[in-house]
Amino acid sequence: MNYRVISLKYRPQDFDELTGQNHVVLSLKGAIKSGRMGHAFLFAGPRGVGKTTTARILAKSLNCIEGPTVHPCQKCQSCREIALSRSIDVIEIDGASNRGIDEIRNLREAIQYSPLHSKHKIYIIDEVHMLTTEAFNALLKTLEEPPPSVIFIFATTNPVKVPQTILSRCERFIFKRLSVREICVRLRSIAEKEKIEVADRALHYIALRADGSVRDGESILEQLVSFVEGKITEDDVFKLIGFLGSEFYVELIRNIIDKKYADVLRMLNRGIEDGANPLEIYRGMVDYMRAALLVYSNLPAELIDLSDDEIAKIKSMTLGREKTMSMLEVLLNSEDLIKRSMNARVAIELLLCQLIRSTEAKLPQTNNTPTADTKQEILNTLQTHSPKLAALLHHSSMKIDGKKIVINAENDFAQKQLLQSKELLERVFKEVLRHECRLAVGVVDSVKQENNIEDTIRALFDGEEVR
Ligand SMILES: Nc1ncnc2c1ncn2[C@@H]1O[C@H](COP(=O)(O)OP(=O)(O)OP(=O)(O)O)[C@@H](O)[C@H]1O
Ligand SMILES: [Mg+2]
Ligand SMILES: [Zn+2]
User: Fold this and answer.
1) Which atom, in ligand 1's list, is nearest to the CA of 8?
2) Is the pTM for the entire model greater than 0.85?
3) Partners of 408 in the beta sheet?
4) Could you report the per-residue pLDDT of 147-206, keeping only the tens digit for each?
5) Is the beta carbon of 213 within 6 A of some atom in ligand 1?
6) Which domains, and CATH codes, for the chain?
7) Residue 51, ligand 1, Cβ within 6 A
8) Is the minimum distance from the CB of 47 to ligand 1 under 6 angstroms?
9) Residue 176 Cα to ligand 1 middle (Å)
10) Which of 357, 218, 355, 223 is nearest to 282 (CA)?
11) SS3 187
12) Helix 246-257 × helix 278-296 angle, to 10°
């Protein structure tokens, strides 16, 4: 049997086979149909999302014997040669290994000769941002007055490094990272064609790890096929990529919030012993916290790359947006440390401890009115248990002094209602503030004059000892 790696075997040959780049496909098709083709294109986007593939399809469309056409025939000499990267008139240059002025000079000379077999001479320059400044300058001259039959297609993962003078002479197309869902669909269809048995959850984790790149997804699938016998499961995926499932992250984050230093460190080290590397765990944390931020910002589920199950788990952590943001901030600030550290294990241990500390620092100060965010979080949580109580609390003011919470209700009625649900309220406060709470409820009038919160508390707790 003739073995070919999946990513090459399944390289799309026609615009309609591309996944997820509809905006690019639509405008390229439009240009081809209208016959208004520029002579220079720039395809920008992350790795493995279809830039080179699209460049070849475009080359086929233009040089096909039936071309220009949005459906190259795939049969004529030009179509077949381009598919095999053998066309003399479609020249692929790797910008990373041909960076210098000499290469571009050679190119400028070669450009003068007309195409041999086709309508256009098409230059596909990959990783064009790697060219040297001199090479860019030489290229610019060519771009200003290209011979009519020449077309340039530049591809880059780093458009910021391409000089503005070049950019402004190209039609630009931005390729996007693919969503987990899009990658799953693509991998599923390949698995069906290859008769690969793979569980949905396994595909989900492959796609998650692919991080937007179809090629990466395909190559993980391929590696799994070679070492798994029978159906590929989620555990096989974890084993291969040292990836820890959502259970791990949810529990780890819970332990962080609960300030369980020992449990956090124990979990981390267990994860590393299970084969995950520290950078892996770091990435997983960032992914989870980002997802949490999206969840707490009420984004619709389709926009969050997680299963409904996982979204429910994140909601149940009642982290809230503020805390999530500050944890993400701590995480991102340590990116360099984790990536460059000679001892990544210690670096991530330190980072997780810092995360615990960051959740502490965000607790409301003692002897203080809670921040607007804390109050909002309390209200949100209470809302899910009792909208009526939430409304009453909304109209009350509150003070937090360590474990003691004083609520100044608007009137006697409100005070009575709140007091009746003291237990529930204490539970909600505990959930949000993450420590035991003792509650006292007064009425605004009786405590309003009391500037000294200590006295107020003493008055309200009626001499009771509050631990
Ligand atoms: N949008 C896509 N739809 C379907 N398959 C894709 C897509 N993007 C990438 N692939 C798969 O990944 C392989 C590599 O894609 P391609 O070479 O076009 O990526 P690229 O964007 O040029 O990446 P790089 O920046 O690393 O060169 C293809 O052969 C194909 O199997
Ligand atoms: Mg490429
Ligand atoms: Zn053809």
Assistant:
1) 29
2) no
3) 397, 442
4) 889 999 999 999 999 999 999 999 999 999 998 889 999 999 999 999 999 999 899 889
5) no
6) 6-174 (3.40.50.300), 180-241 (1.10.8.60), 246-361 (1.20.272.10), 372-461 (3.30.300.180)
7) yes
8) yes
9) 11
10) 355
11) helix
12) 80
